[in-house]
Structures are given as C-alpha cells and as structure tokens.
Amino acid sequence: GLSDKLQETFKRLKGKGKLKEADVNEAMREVRVALLEADVNFKVVKDFVAKVKERSIGLDVLESLSPAQQVIKIVHEEMITLMGGATGKILIASKPPTVIMLIGLQGAGKTTHAAKLANMLNKQGKHPLLVACDIYRPAAIKQLQVLGEQLKLPVFSMGQESPVEIAKASLKHANSNGQDVVIIDTAGRLHINEELMGELRDIKTAVKPHEILLVVDAMTGQDAVNVAESFHKELGLDGVILTKLDGDTRGGAALSIKAVTGCTIKFAGMGEKMDAIEPFHPDRMASRILGMGDVLTLIEKAQESFDEKKAKEMEQKLRKQEFTLDDFLDQMQQMKKMGPLSSILEMIPGVGKQLKDVQIDEKDTAHIEAIIRSMTTEERRKPALIKDSRKKRIAKGSGTSVQEVGSLLKRFEQMQKMMKQFASPGGMGMLGGGKK
Ligand code: GDP
Ligand code: MG
User: Which family is this protein grouped under (predicted)?
Assistant: First the structure.
C-alpha cells in the first residue's frame, strides 16, 4: 500500500545529515510513484510533489527533527492542506426544517448514511425525518424503513409516487410533526446519466436543500473523484461523504477530491454500523495514509475511558522510564475498559509489527494479575531482582508456574523497551510534538 511505500522511502532518507537537493529529488520521485499507485489524480500529484520539494530543499534542519522526519512533516502538512477545510458540520437552517439531500451512485452508501446522519443529528438533539425517494426498487424503501425502526426515527415514504412529490410532501409532514431536519435519500444509478441528473435537479428545485451531500465510495479511487466532479458541475455540491474508509482503501479519493473539485469532504463512513460516521479529519487521514498510525484517534479513544490524570502520570513515567510492574497492572485494568488491547496498540505508529512479541491474550489477564499481586513492592519496581528462587515463590503464591512468571517478566521487559522507543524523539515524538 501507499503507506508501506512511503515508509520505505522515508527509511532511506533516515541517517542523512542534511536535506540536499539530490536526496529530496530522489525521495520525491518515489513519493510521486507511490501516490500515483495509490490512485491519486496525476495533476494533484504533480502539484503536491512540487510544493513539498520547494519547501524541503535548502531548509534549515531543525535540531529536534531528523531530515527524514522533517520531510515527513512537510508531506504530512501538505497532505492536510490538500484535504483541508472545515470538518464535518451540517449547516442548520435558521428556519426549520433543515433540508439535506443525499445523492450518489448506486451502492455508494446513500441509504446507510442517511440513517447514520439522522442518528448523529438526533444525538445532537435534533428531530430528523428520513425520506424515501429511491422509488425504483421496493427493497430500497424497505431498507430505509428498517434502519429507521432500528434507530427509532421516523421514515416518510409514499411508495412509488414521483420523487419530487414525495420530497415536497415530506417538508409539509416535517413541519406539522415538529421534525426540524429532513434527510432525503435519493435513487442512484450504476453510472451517471441524464435521467438521474434530471431527477435530482427536479428534487433540488422543488425543495431547495440547505445541504446537497454527495456520497462516494472511497474504494473506487479515481472514479470517485470523476463522479464528484460531474455531480458538482451538474448540481452544486455542499460537501462530500466519503464512505467505506474502514476498508482497504488506497487513499487516492481522499487526497484528490478536494483538490480536483473544490468540495470539502465533510464526513467519513467507517463501517456498516449506525454509529460508524465521523467528521472527516484531514490530519488523521494524512497520518493514516503515511502509516504513522492514527495517533489522534488513539488519544481520543484512550481519553474516553482513561482517567486523564492517570494518563498524565503514565506519560511522565514513560518519559522518565519509570514504568513498573505496578503501572503495568494498572494499565491493564484501564485497557480492559478500553476494549481489546491489540486494537489499541495497533494504532500506535510502528507497533503493528512488534505486536506479536508482546501480544497479551485477554484471557491471560487474570493470571498476570495474580502473578504481579504475588510480588513484593520492591520486586514490582525492580523486576531484575526476580531470579529463580523468587520466581518459584511467586509462582506458588499465584497458583501459576515458574514458566508463566518468566514469560510475563520477559514480555514486560519487551514492553518497556517498546515504550522507551515511543518516548524517544525518533518514536512517537514527531507527532506528539517531540522534544524541544
Ligand atoms: P446506496 O445504494 O447508495 O443507498 O448504498 P447503501 O446505503 O445501500 O450501501 C451499500 C452497501 O455498502 C451496504 O451493504 C452498506 O452496508 C455498505 N456500506 C455503506 N457505507 C459503508 C461504510 O462506510 N463502510 C462499509 N464497510 N460498508 C458500508
Ligand atoms: Mg439506497
């Protein structure tokens, strides 16, 4: 994938003392190929590479960053600019109802995202009405009704009536039922054609939506960009919902849409479940494409269940490298609240590959707890003290075996090593602000 390619390139830049023109040129040639292979629009790539080059060559090398890190930082920043703009906000009309119209090709995720949006807005205190304007397949109406039922949100439908009439009637219905947001799910086609555009134009004229959002499948790469360009030209888009970003996307669509069409990606679809919608974060997307892990998502997820003060203490300990077995135990308990340990660790840059060495089976946690609890305070602080006789005592005390005690100590040691890496400037330092 793109991130592997770029990381290869950046690895080679590592260890170079200065940002020389030849080095930058060489790296940029590879970045260019990697981006093209990721299905990024060729013109976007050309401009992007030129900009990064211009900023990189002859740059004063900051003390806190290696040259490679500095180029990554520039690539990261330029990617953010490329995808930039305000993140997911729906313009709420001063006079309700706010009308949102979802359009796009068949299978892009319109119906799913109509429901997800309704759910999201409902959680923000709004009263949304879902409107079934995809009249060509009875199953499409049913699909929206099922989702509405699941979310306990009202769905407005009039069977095979003309979409324009349904849309108009839905506004009246919303007005008399206290619904302040109307979300219109429209029909798609396999390809853009005049019939589809005509129908959408008619609905637009009839209800004057506050937001026309294009739903596009990120997996379709450049096609998604072409589709966005056509829809924008024909109908004037207010934003894009980029779906299926949970899949194995190559990043091309995310990186090109804004640059090619000028339309902001407002939301990202991250799965089939009803809560799998997020405001689109260019910075996170850039990190993900660069393979630096989604650090911000990690921090956010951690903060949801971590006691913030505890997290701070933990960070300080990490930086001072005073992480003890007691902290390990503590952290394990926190992790239990946060969900599978592996899914958390995978989000930390560079951990993926090392993960299997320190993999903690969630079923093991009871044993681990017992083992640590059987150690003295001093042993927990200085595990190096634990030689054979102590191992025997701890195994006996915890009802485990000497091998299990040994293996825990070994894993803890590996974890400490890993954490030292992240606390160092070459590790997570770059995104976390690094050491000044
Ligand atoms: P529509 O034809 O545009 O209305 O598309 P649908 O909403 O019916 O979605 C088509 C398929 O894509 C369905 O199976 C959805 O469950 C699936 N889908 C929609 N959004 C996402 C997403 O963000 N991630 C994943 N993995 N699947 C999605
Ligand atoms: Mg649909």
Answer: Belongs to the GTP-binding SRP family. SRP54 subfamily.
